Every structure is written in C-alpha cells, then in structure tokens.
C-alpha cells in the first residue's frame, strides 16, 4: 500500500510540474499572441490607422522598467522572459506600421526623432527612431538603477511604475477608438485575447504569490479591455443606425 501511495504521489507531483511548466510557457509567449491577428489585419488591409501605436509605447516602457525591477527584486524568471518576448513583439508591430505608413504616405515630408517636435512624438516616419528612443530610455534606466539599486523604496517604485504603465496598455486604443468614433481597423480578436490573457495572468499572479503590483495591474487591464469591447458593440450599433 505504501508503495502504491508513493507512486500515486509521484504521479500527482509530475502532473502538477507539467501544468506549472505549461502555465509558465503560456505566460512567456501568451502576451504576444493577441498581436498576431492585428498584425495580419494590418498586412491584409495595408492600413494601420485603426491600431494605436501608443499601445506599443506603453508596453515598451512597462517591460523595460519591469526588467530593471527584476534586477532589483528577483521574482519569477518567467516574467522576465515574458518582458523580452513582449519587447520584440512591439518592435515587430512598429516596424510593420512604419512600413505600411511609408507606403501610403502622399507627402514626402518625414518626421524624425531628431526634429524634437513634440507634436509628432511617437509618430516618427522611420523605424530606427523608435529603436533609438528605446535605447536612450534603457540607458537612462540603467544609470538610475545602478545608482539607486540599494534603495528598497526605489526598487518598489520601479515595480509600481512598470505595472502602472502596463495597466494602461489598452488606454491608448480606447482613446483612439473614441477619437475615430469607430473601431474599424482594430482587431476585435486582439482585444478578446487581451481579456482572456489578463484573466489568466490575474489568476497566475495570485496563485504564485507574485508581488501585489502585478495582480492589481492585470485587474485594471481587465476593466479597460471590457470598456473597449463595449466600444465595439456601441460603434457597430451606431454604424447600423446611420446606414439604416
């Protein structure tokens, strides 16, 4: 009997280990999945106006800050890897948007980071300017972190800033939809995957006893996701009324 119980216990432990490994794998790559349908939509339509590139700005800042937060407070390696994957995904989205916008541009006038024109911040014509901005921001964070790494208050503030930016992930898209009075060009699949992913993340953070900043952030994200889905319903009804 003791042998059977030991064998069953081993099987249970192996099953939990497998589930934990799969959950970690989903956490690393799951955050990038919602952008696949949006990427495909932009490629297919050759237009990027419906997608707010400021979503990329928010996520790049959030994940760069999270990497430095990890340096000061080593939490799950899964979340560090997730940040790296997300940064690469946002660069892929920005590269596509720049390519499409340059293809469709009528005017030969280009807006560059070196122009230092606040009106065109994060509306640059060249992908390399986005890389340069992120490089400069990373260097700044590295210098400040190096100087204040021994301060527990600084490290916690860094973590809070990271999750605060991440919590605002959907906010630029919410504003863009409101400004356009339409959700045309935005992938509804992307938002639905955002919502599913944020629910999964919240459960994951609570079960793994991650820093409180993480599950608070994901809870706020769920609320914004729901607001965007309500915009989809509202603007689709409004369109039908106008056509009718």
Automatic annotation (TrEMBL):
Q: A Pfam family matched by this chain, by name?
A: PQ-loop
- Family annotation (SMART domains): CTNS
Q: How does it sit in the membrane?
A: Multi-pass membrane protein
Keywords of this protein's UniProt record, alphabetized? Membrane, Repeat, Transmembrane, Transmembrane helix
Listed under GO cellular component are:
membrane
| Primary subcellular site in the record, as a coarse category | membrane
Q: Which residues cross the membrane?
A: 20-39, 51-71, 77-100, 130-149, 213-235
Q: What is this protein called?
A: Solute carrier family 66 member 2
Tell me which species this is from: Pagothenia borchgrevinki
């Amino acid at each position: 009997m003791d042998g059977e119980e030991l064998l069953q216990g081993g099987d249970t432990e192996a099953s939990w280990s497998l589930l934990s490994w799969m959950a970690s794998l989903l956490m690393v790559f799951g955050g990038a999945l919602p952008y696949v349908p949006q990427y495909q939509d932009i490629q297919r339509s050759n237009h990027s106006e419906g997608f707010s590139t400021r979503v990329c700005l928010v996520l790049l800042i959030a994940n760069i800050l999270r990497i430095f937060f990890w340096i000061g407070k080593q939490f799950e390696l899964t979340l560090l890897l997730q940040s790296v994957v997300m940064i690469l995904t946002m660069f892929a989205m920005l590269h596509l948007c720049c390519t499409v916008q340059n293809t469709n541009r009528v005017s030969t006038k280009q807006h560059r980071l070196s122009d230092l024109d606040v009106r065109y911040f994060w509306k640059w014509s060249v992908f390399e300017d986005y890389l340069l901005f992120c490089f400069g921001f990373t260097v700044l964070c590295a210098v400040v972190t190096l100087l204040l790494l021994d301060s527990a208050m600084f490290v916690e503030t860094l973590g809070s800033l990271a999750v605060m930016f991440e919590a605002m992930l959907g906010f630029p898209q919410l504003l863009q939809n409101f400004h356009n009075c339409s959700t045309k060009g935005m992938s509804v699949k992307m938002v639905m995957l955002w919502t599913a992913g944020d629910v999964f993340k919240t459960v994951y953070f609570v079960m793994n006893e991650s820093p409180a900043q993480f599950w608070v952030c994901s809870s706020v994200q769920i609320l914004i996701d729901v607001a965007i889905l309500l915009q989809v319903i509202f603007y689709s009804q409004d369109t039908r009324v106008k056509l009718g």
